[in-house]
Amino acid sequence: MKREVVIVTAAYGNSVVKALGGQAALLSIIADAQADGVEIRRELFSEQELDALPELAENIKRHGLFSIYSVPFPLFISGGKLNPDAKKYFSEAHVLGARTIKFSLGEFEPGADLTPLRVLLDSQTVKLVVENDQSSDCGILSRINAFAFAAESLHLPLSLTFDTANWLWVGQDPSAAAERLARHVGYVHVKAAEQRDGKWHAVALDNSDGSWEPLLKMLPQDVPRGIEFPLEGDDLTAVTRYYVELLRQ
């Protein structure tokens, strides 16, 4: 079975997305690079684009792609409560025709009542994936693992997005996280990073130390891989196709 590769629109950089006129302009590049899907980022929408989700959905379908909808909001807010706007974002994902919607975890607390989340998920056809982000309080292994365990014990229909480099931003070992969380992972954000001036920066895989490769081998091989590291160059289609083929191997 062919491994699915997804292109995260943010990989091209916010300035490029704006210069091209929005995320829809990237679809031909992504399709020509023979990727399978596109991760649409809500934070990159203008108000006009947000109002045109049905047209974007048709455009994605016309290019032969599936979509993942990424929202820049946490699933849980202060006190471990479900984000009150979560249903609205699921509705947007539905209009977009997205297969999956992605949230960061946010302020989940062990022992929190997950009944509201179950009720929400039971009413949805769009699948939920929950990501480890770069926040020092919420993107840490102990919190992500506690949530995964709680969700599994309640048989909630969701999985994790494992971002291979975000662990570095919160001072944690990606390999230790992979060992603990692999069986819960339904989507992998492939990202490499290097430290410059004491800060982490995302870099293309070929410009990295190569640690991404053994890390990917620790994770499920039958889930989509999303390219979130920088895709840059004079020929964006060729650069994208190169990494699509690399991650299919």
Give a description of the structure.
The protein is an alpha/beta fold. It has eleven helices and eleven strands. The strands form two sheets. Strands 1-2-3-5-6-7-8-11 form an eight-stranded parallel β-barrel, surrounded by four helices. It has a two-stranded antiparallel sheet with strand order 9-10. β9 and β10 form a beta hairpin.
In brief, what are we looking at here?
With 249 residues, the protein is of the alpha/beta class.
Shape, per Cα inertia axes: globular
Order of helices and strands: EHHEHHEEHEHEHEHHEEEHEH
Low-confidence stretches: none
Mean pLDDT across the residues is 97
Strand order of the largest sheet: 1-2-3-5-6-7-8-11
Over all CA atoms, what is the radius of gyration? Answer: 17 Å
Query: Percent helix among the residues?
Result: 25-40%
Percent range for β-strand residues: 15-25%
Distance between the termini: 11 Å
Number of helices: 11
Structural class of the secondary elements? Answer: alpha/beta
